[in-house]
Amino acid sequence: MNPSQYRFARNLLFRLDAETAHHVSMGALRKLETIQLLRLLNGNIPKAEPVQCMGLAFPNKVGLAAGLDKEGNTIDALGRLGFGHVEIGTITPRPQEGNPLPRLFRIINREAIINRMGFNNPGIDAGAQNVAASTTFRKRGGIVGFNIGKNKSTPNENATDDYLACLRGAWDVADYITVNLSSPNTPGLRDLQAADETSRLLEALKTEQEKLTLERGKRVPITLKVAPDLDLQHIKELSKVFLNGGLDGLIATNTTISRSEVDGCDFSKQAGGLSGAPLTQKSTDVISAFYSHLGGKLPIIGVGGIMDAKDAQAKIAAGATLIQLYTGFIYHGPALVKNILKTNH
To answer: Which of 15, 50, 64, 271 gives a 20 to 30 Å CA spacing to 190?
Structure first.
């Protein structure tokens, strides 16, 4: 699908409300992949050098961030668009419907999205089954990440139990597992990013990681996804926790609660996390700050406001080993993946 074709399709989809458009487009991708038309429509993917990260061989640097394929049922289709890795979820132990509708809003003139989805997902058992059912992406060397979170009804003092349950449930089907502590749409979740809370959770996760590695004969790296709204002191404290705790990788960043870049725009007062172009510099600055404290000892996956190849290069220059797309992909389509691969070897 060339850029003009995607713009035509996007214009039609943007006439629908954002969440309906999401379900229509994901369903269409699955159908096109099933009848083997997606490869023909998308054309050739630029060749890229593989990237070694966390003991895994990623086919290229460009991945899809969690949040688009929340159920893990569109991996093969999304992988056909050129992504080297696809991160699904966020998945919680028990199924949950998420927040009331409407909960997804476009700010088109700023190429931004606000979401307050609230971890709507089918639960860990169904999520793991969906991932297990995807085969063609992995056969081509694709990497699947599994993003996990706590249920809304689980109090923070019991959050570790939820994360451990998801870790066990995702282990056999995931290439890496991401612990989401940074969504602004689950009340109290970001409190788990406090250094002492993160340290305790990471210790429990690493203990379980060692146990599962021995039991199941497979090691799965663990990453943490952090918010872009951290101050420099918090970043310094968390960096120490990550290095001391043996974290395998860091994903920076999630959506922001700031509205400074979209003040006065339609939907800017809606609650939720803001993504897209207004997040670009904020996310890059957080990556740079983490990199300065981690000193290259911990790989960073950079995500947040990557709208073109230049933004991708800025994330890599700031210290990211890999990058992920979400909102930029919504606005610019598969051509964005190809453009980044062409210019970031």
So the answer is: 64
